[in-house]
Write a structure and sequence with these properties.
Shape: globular
Bound molecules: flavin-adenine dinucleotide
Strand order of the largest sheet: 4-5-10-6-7
Order of helices and strands: EHEHEEEHHHHHHEEHEEEEEEEHHH
Number of strands: 14
Radius of gyration: 19 Å
Largest sheet: 5 strands, antiparallel
Number of helices: 12
Helix content: 25-40%
Distance between the termini: 55 Å
Strand content: 15-25%
Length: 289
């Protein structure tokens, strides 16, 4: 399939890109790596008459260490983030999850911002953003706003982005001191979209008692899902096998997975039970008190 016809603009600056989006409104779409947008056009699921190609906008790319975290420009390739020493050192949970995003060829083109803006519930990065409490910097004309991950994602393939607004970058805060973390997912073949995935973060005190827990899921609802009920069950308890089993069972009931040709709701809940237990066990082993 070929896409419907469109006019293509390739601005060099963020300001030009924003003014093109403002001029063309609902008719325009930003083009990042094209790994999701081009299939969407080819399948005629969207028919924008204008594409604003962001690939020449250097200001949107790059990874930098900032006070309290790591900033990743929206046009940074997923592969660059996966291989970044800053990400490996400051946000290793993100590096562990990025290798599950599609295949290296796709990660070479696909961008961190494109994946977040696309908001596919089967994508890893939106769930990771919930687990980190990532901040999203958006710009429309000369107006900027910053949203937390929980306010950025609005449901199936839907975010808070307005048609003439761009995601500029995301800030991934450091996890709490001594936090343990792990990412687990199951896909039919490595590189396929996850049937289910989970990111776990735990903090424990010197007695081994959990003082904070975060659980965020891939393919577990219309958007990325955090299971605050299961998280609350962990806090105040020693992270032993019984506690982990109980919390994993609670999380499996709390998620709202769909049924499709790849997996039933029951199978996804079973995956959530197993993967949550694995992720919490590994995260607990990594946590230092
Ligand atoms: P594009 O496709 O260019 O854009 C996607 C959407 O985001 C468009 O609506 C676009 O307008 C919007 N957008 C992009 N950048 C911005 C911005 N800065 N501001 C505002 N809006 C913006 N992803 C996974 O997470 N896990 C997988 O397992 C996985 N498997 C894949 C397998 C295949 C075969 C393919 C083709 C893709 C797969 N993907 C997977 C998707 C891939 O990660 C895409 O790269 C990603 O979803 C979109 O990033 P992109 O840079 O290609 O964005």
């Amino acid at each position: 399939m070929k896409p419907p016809p469109f006019a293509w603009y390739a601005p060099d600056t963020l300001e030009e890109a924003l003014s093109l989006l403002a001029e063309h409104g609902d008719e325009a779409k930003a083009l990042a790596g094209g790994q999701s947008l081009i299939p969407v056009l080819n399948f005629r699921l969207a028919r924008p008459s204008v594409l604003v190609d962001l690939n020449r906008v250097a200001a949107l790319s790059g990874i930098a260490e900032i006070d309290g975290g790591v900033r990743i420009g929206a046009m940074t390739r997923q592969r660059e983030a996966e291989r970044s020493p800053w990400v490996a050192k400051r946000a290793p949970l993100l590096a562990e999850a990025l290798v599950h995003v599609a295949h290296p060829q796709i990660r070479n083109r696909g961008t961190v911002g494109g994946s977040l803006a696309h908001a596919d519930p089967a994508a890893e990065l939106p769930a990771l953003a919930l687990a980190f409490g990532t901040r999203f910097r958006l710009r429309r004309g000369s107006t900027e706003r910053v949203l937390e991950a929980k306010d950025f994602f609005r449901g199936l393939l839907t975010t808070a982005l307005e048609p003439d607004e761009l995601l500029v970058d995301t800030e991934w805060p450091h996890l709490p001191n001594g936090a343990g973390w792990a990412f687990e997912e199951i896909a039919r073949r490595h590189g396929d979209y996850a049937l289910l995935g989970v990111a776990a973060v735990v903090v424990r005190d010197s007695g081994g008692v959990c003082t904070e827990a975060r659980l965020a899921y891939v393919s577990a609802g219309p958007g990325p899902v955090r299971t605050t009920g299961a998280e609350a069950m962990l806090v105040g308890r020693v992270l032993d096998a019984d506690t982990i089993r109980e919390a994993a069972a609670a999380a499996a009931e709390e998620i709202k997975p769909g049924s499709d040709v790849h997996a039933s709701v029951e199978y996804r809940r079973q995956l959530a039970r197993v993967l949550t237990a694995r992720a919490l066990t590994r995260a607990g082993q990594r946590a230092s008190s």
